[in-house]
Amino acid sequence: MGILFSIVFVMSYLSGHSQEKPSATQSFMVTGEVKQEVKISVNDFDKYRGALVKDVVITNHLGEVKSRIKKLTGVLLRDILANVEIKSEKPRDLSACYLVCKATDGYTIIYSWNEVFNNPAGESIYLITSKEDIKAIDMEESILMLSPRDYKTGRRYLKSLTSIEVKRAN
Q: How confident is the model at residue 8, as a pLDDT?
């Protein structure tokens, strides 16, 4: 009886805590410490200079290969956010800002303002416009965000971006 109860408990726990597949997004909101909230759609990606990202190996926190994504193109996050005005009295206030990027399943990644706009890292933080010749609007997990130069690429591989909130460290 005790073993049966344990099996039923574990099975119900696992079914209630299984990892959900993120639902596809066609746009995301930029909110928080901004002068005006902005909605950005996958259709807006065509307004920005695209880049060939090539193939990327996705690794987990241990560096183990989890998948390979081929024939990627993207637009830089900094290009998309360049016209979003952040509330700040002085330029130095921007050094206290960071971006909280969230997916529909709750997965969250963070970038500092300096990392995106004042560092070579900002030259490789992409929103993916196509993957394996499939446009972002048709990708199952669009909108994808990726930092292919990261050592552990899976840590900041975000599927189905739904929002970017600009926050300020105290």
A: 35
Residues whose CB is less than 8 angstroms from the CB of residue 140 and which lie 6 or more positions away in sequence, other chains included: 24
Q: Give tens-digit pLDDT for 47-84.
A: 999 999 989 999 999 999 999 999 999 999 999 999 99
Q: What's the per-residue H, E or C state across 72-99? A: EEEEEHHHHHCCCCECCCCHHHHHHEEE
108, 145, 142, 143: which is closest to 125 by C-alpha? 145
Phi-psi region of 63 (alpha: psi -120 to 50; beta: other; left: phi over 0): left
Give, as one character, the DSSP assignment of residue 141: T
What is the span of the domain harbouring residue 152?
A: 22-168
Q: What is the mean pLDDT of the chain?
A: 88
Q: How many domains does the chain have?
A: 1
Residue 48 lies in a domain: yes
Give the CATH number, domain containing residue 103: 3.90.420.10
Locus of tokens 């193109």: 73
